[in-house]
Amino acid sequence: MKIARWKPLTLLFSAALVVVPTTATLAAPDATADSVVEDYYQDAIGKTGPELKTALHGIISSGTTTLTYNEVWDALKVTDEDPNNNANVILLYTGRSQGKDTNGGDADDWNREHVWAKSHGDFGTSPGPGTDVHHLRPTDVTVNSDRGNKDFDMGGTESEEAPGNFTDGDSWEPRDEVKGDVARMIFYMAVRWDGGDGFADLEVNDNVDNGSNPFIGRVSVLKQWNEQDPPDAGEQRRNQVIFDQFQHNRNPFIDHPEWVAEIW
Fold it and tell me: Where is this region: Disordered (predicted)?
């Protein structure tokens, strides 16, 4: 097993970009009573294994709002806002703070990264899993392309544009500060989208060659990342914003990261 890498921070400067160290995080959430969150999960409390997964699917699939792919642009400008500069968003893999209105498809723009690669299940960008903001994050266009549709694992060559991230022919390793974020987004998708909505049944496995199958790995590594990088205030805030303002559902593994081990 590889140990986590800790890399020195790199400052990037460009006339088109506003840059901060890669340790930038999102602001803390507004105080939310624990009892309110626990009420949301009432039907899951005390369950384990497949029963817990089924209960969580029912909870996070009920009363939700589905966004269009265009609406995702505006949602990300809120969910991933830089707490130190409300004109910017923080990019997932680089940690860079960048202007909200620099979104697009050109080099050094930011675009919408499907953390669960949309080719893994071929669900595209029609309303559904392809527009689920819980796994969509702002990323540098070039870095998004470098990640492509690779599974997640340790190792490879360090990304030139996103130091701290590593890649090889079949996998992507995100920087340490967001390893747990990535894992919990993947676990959320595997619970939320189970084949009952006209889309593929998304599942995690321990492979890195899943291609267009509705699977993503490596689950053993994702479980390690969930423990190594527990939810921080920024991730919790993002979860609350999605619940309050956009989809009206939560990522249960941000509220209860221990449930990962109960299911997988």
Answer: 119-175
Tell me the two tokens of residue 236. 């919790």
Cβ-contact 123, 131 below 8 angstroms: no
End-to-end CA distance of the chain: 19
pLDDT one-digit tens code per residue, 152-209? 999 999 999 999 999 999 999 999 999 999 999 999 999 999 998 899 999 999 999 9
Burial of 19 (0-12, 13-18, 19+ CB in 10 A): middle
DSSP states of 192-247: H-BSTTSS-B-EE-S-S--TTSSEE--HHHHHHHHHHS---HHHHHHHHHIIIIIS
Contact 164, 7 (CB under 8 A): yes
Contact 146, 96 (CB under 8 A): no
Domain ranges of the chain: 34-263
Q: Which residues pair with 157 in a beta bridge?
A: 167
Partners of 167 in the beta sheet?
Answer: 157, 172
- Write the pLDDT tens digit of every residue in 96-112: 999 999 999 999 999 99
Pairing of strands 171-173, 151-152: parallel
This prediction's pTM: 0.87
Q: Which residues, including other chains, have CB under 8 Å from residue 63's CB and lie 6 or more apart?
A: 248, 249
pLDDT exceeds cutoff 60 at 75: yes
Among the listed residues 44, 43, 40, 42, the one whose alpha carbon sits nearest the alpha carbon of residue 64 = 40
